[in-house]
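Notes from hallway chat w/ T.B., transcribed later so I don't forget. T.B. wanted the structure written out for a chain they're using in a teaching module, and asked if we could keep both sequence and structure tokens in one place. Agreed to drop them here.
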Amino acid sequence: MSDLFPGFGERRLATRQAEIFLRIGGSGPPLLLLHGFPQTHSMWHKLAAELCGCFTLVIPDLRGYGLSSCPSNDESNRVYSKRAMGEDFFEIMTSLGYAKFAVAGHDRGGRVAYRMALDSPQRVAALVVLDIVPTLHMWHSFDAGFAMKTYHWLFLAQPNPLPEMLIERAPIAFLDYTLASWTKTKNLSAFDEAALAEYRFHFATPEHVHATCNDYRAGWTYDHKADEADRSLGRRIESPTLAIWGDDGFPSAVEGTLDPWKSWCTDVRGNSVDSGHFVAEENPKDTLDQLMPFLLEYAVE
């Protein structure tokens, strides 16, 4: 994996509930990059070389993914909530000496990122979300067509052991099918072989299958309720926000793709790129063309 991030260091840092693996490289204002399902931190490798020329990149594996630990879940699913994952990264950024930082997240990482901006707005200088709409909006947007497109939300959130029992019979086949089917080309051509090997290696283990299912169970329960609570209190994301989505990604199925973020954010902009769900790997150039001006304006020391 070091070949995908030349010149980067690696660390393993303990938080109150997990042990987090991360890579650090570059110089300049701090930028936290959070991956999504069913991947690891390696999904950022096509953007890292350019970003690290302007920013100090902190690129971890979420708890339950990659080389980070898989803590035992609790009845409320808080252990795998986006709030708990965000707490990991607040602790880590504090330990690295960063009181305030920008954060960009794809997929589940995007949900962690916007939860961080809601919970501790004074610490998030800028927010970038890649190919998502807010969790509350997702659950309230399901019709028959959207449910078919995003079947995994319903499948992975089912009680243990149903999804684990089915996935563990053929985890690599499930992973490859999932990755390919969420791209615009409907194949694996967008993924570097070394990154793909990383995704396969970690997802194939039962503890990671279980942890990622717990992530989605938290989405249906704890995360859903946290968003409902914020909406009822009228809380909004105060950090300047950029939304990027694939024109064939999941948000493209939601009418008025940027509108959900406008209802959650005080300052948001965004646009699509020619891509499926995995914008950072399918179309890194256009993704960077949107990312860089925004981050150069809003990321701070």
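Follow-up for T.B.: The beta strands are 9-14, 19-26, 30-34, 56-60, 101-106, 124-130, 241-246, 268-273. Might be a good example for the class.
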